[in-house]
Amino acid sequence: MTTYDTTYDTTxxxxxxxxxxxxxxxxxxxSPRHSRLVTGLALSGAALVxxxxxxGVRLAQQTPTASPVQPGILVPALAExxxxxxxxxxxxxxxxxxxxxxxxxxxxxxxGSYYAATAPGNQLCLVSVPLGDLPQTSCTSxxxxxxxxxxxxxxxxxxxxxxxxxWHESSANVFVKD
Length: 178
Hints:
Layout: H1 10-21, H2 36-61, H3 71-74, H4 90-93, E1 104-109, E2 112-119, E3 123-130, E4 136-141, E5 149-151, E6 154-156, E7 167-171, E8 174-177
Antiparallel strand pairs: 1-2, 2-3, 3-4, 5-6, 6-8, 7-8
């Protein structure tokens, strides 16, 4: 039969081991303390530097906004009074985001009709109403750099913009592919 000695106390021995390991720090000097004023000023200065950097980045990202040009200046037909032939049928313009009173007929050919129009947000649009198909639009902003608007083989070229090679002028501001 095996007998165990129960007089041995491991808790006391372990405590002595830990107390020996974590004593003797009395020779370490405490760190010098900065005054609260110096710490507050340093934190305030750092915060101002961060805020200044963020403001500088935000200002650098902003681009000057160009003023929109009146659509009638870009496409003189839009400055004219709307006639009965300029109106796009309600069914054809139902899904188009254009101003119904701004449409002007530019060209009619054997494939359909093409209109100039405006849309909310200072947009100039070319609208195609093909025969037997759904209408399409192509729009650009009247502010900033203007470009041409193209649908199929018809291009609307605003005043002051040059049409690319391979296109000839069919009527004012309207070009068709050669």
